[in-house]
Amino acid sequence: MIEVNCINVTGAKLTSKKIDLKPKAHNLNVTYWAYNKDGKYENSVIPVVAGYYVDPRDSSTDNAIFIVPQSEEPNVSVRKLH
To answer: How far apart are CA 61 and CA 25, in angstroms?
Structure first.
């Protein structure tokens, strides 16, 4: 998840201060070996999320209203959330 935070919002009604965007999950199938309940050593596959990504031509969108002081552009910071 990615948080986009507008630092210089005015605090006026209907003003958003931040939005959260969620990129696509990168899933992998992991094969592991373990003993089953009968004592037999066997392999199994478990899907895991290895990370998140946005393709070069993709976009992630959300709606937010950032009202900033007149003649200023929004000053935003972006950070990764866990």
So the answer is: 16
Chain length of the chain = 82
Q: For residues 50 and 47, what is the distance between their CA atoms, to the nearest angstrom?
A: 9
pLDDT for the residue numbered 14: 67
- The partner residues of 53 in beta bridges, in order of sequence, read 24
CA distances from residue 6 to 1, 59, 64, 76 in whole angstroms, order as listed? 16, 19, 10, 4
Instruction: Pull the structure tokens for residue 54.
Output: 């946005």
Q: Report the alpha-carbon distance of residue 14 to residue 5 in Å, rounded.
A: 15
Measured in whole angstroms, how far is the alpha carbon of residue 10 from the centre of its chain? 26
User: Average pLDDT for consecutive 10-residue bins of the chain (82 residues)?
Assistant: 85 78 88 95 95 78 84 88 72
**pTM confidence score:** 0.50
Taking the domains of the chain in order of start, what are their residue ranges?
2-80
